[in-house]
Records
---
Amino acid sequence: TELARLNRVVTEFLAFARVPRPNRRVCLVEEVLESIRLLCAREAERREVRIEVDCPEEIPRAYLDAPQLQQALLNIVLNGIQAMSSGGVLQMKAHHIAGTVMIRVRDSGPGIAPALRKRVFDPFYTTKGRGTGLGLAIATRLVQAQGGSISIQTAGGRGSVFQIELPLEVVGDE
């Protein structure tokens, strides 16, 4: 309904307008990725998208704001699922490199045209008929609030890859 859409727009705008302060706690990146797979399972199934999670290496426990990371990934993953109108595969892969955790979200959708690529992180920019254009802008702010960065690689017809890089403050064995 129109009221539900308006409520969603206002809620997303308020989330974007707030300056997020990370509340870092001990977390496991693998658990964050698995929670996103579970949260998106119904939408993925409805759109005939298979979600794969790959954490081939042992990523150490770290101090991160897991809810902020989850929200950023949720926005990216839902965009990827929605981009694959005729089904496909969405992969979330994490690995650990010298004090950094890298999370890549790859979809098998149509990709993003070069002319649009620079604008995908801009607030209120959307190519969807029903979107608010705040999902990726919010994801960017949440990642940056934790000292990280987010980038995109895409090629027409070959999907998109969003990459999140976060500093990894490793938790020692307790």
---
Amino acid sequence: MLDRWDQERIAAFVPAAWAQRVAACGGTVHEVDGLAVCLTGVPLAPFNPTLVVRLPDDPDEAVARAATRYEGTGLSIGIDLDVSLHGPVRQAAARAGLTMVESRPGMTLRPREAARVDPPDGVELFRVDDPALLDELVEVDAAAFGGEPAMTRRF
């Protein structure tokens, strides 16, 4: 079980990581009273979350203003939050008519506790640093997951 300090560190990391991901896609992060609306331009809801950077001064107003950032995108607002840390935002989302559709529990492990595990037979892991290999990765992703190649490349 994580202590509150670890929970807060992880919760702070997620918006920062998403900001980098959004920048890599050429998207925009809109700051709305403690909420970060991450619009990547990738037309899939999970790739365009609203995240809690800090508890808003007015959670109801922040959720309403964040929702307006999705207008014209073909997407609706989705908020990723830590229930134990961001209760006021969850309550404001519920008052706005949003319902929880997914829960993604996270896990953490201190690096010194990690055990090396070799990949299964026939699987090779390596860093893709050659643009030609990136093209192959995009093709494999599209075949395996039905993704749009241009979207996969962008993301």
---
Amino acid sequence: ILQLTVKGVSGNTLIQILSGKLVVRELVVDADGKHSIEELPAGEYEIRSIFDANKNGKWDTGNYLENRQPETVKSMEGKAKIRANWDTEIELDLSE
């Protein structure tokens, strides 16, 4: 089980748990709080957050003609190590 405490949320944010380039889990948060992600296989995972400005549930590229920047992506430093039969607690601060 991964216990994820998210702080500094400003608006709709996608939290992705990645194994290599594969997105294993994804959750949408719109406020600070605790989230439990269960049944993750043991291993190392990258955690990244996407600030979803238009609330469509995915990362959007920018558009030069519309003068729109791509949505901001922030990756957690290091990797989350999940061990079998252990609860892992991670605090994710999204404030800039």
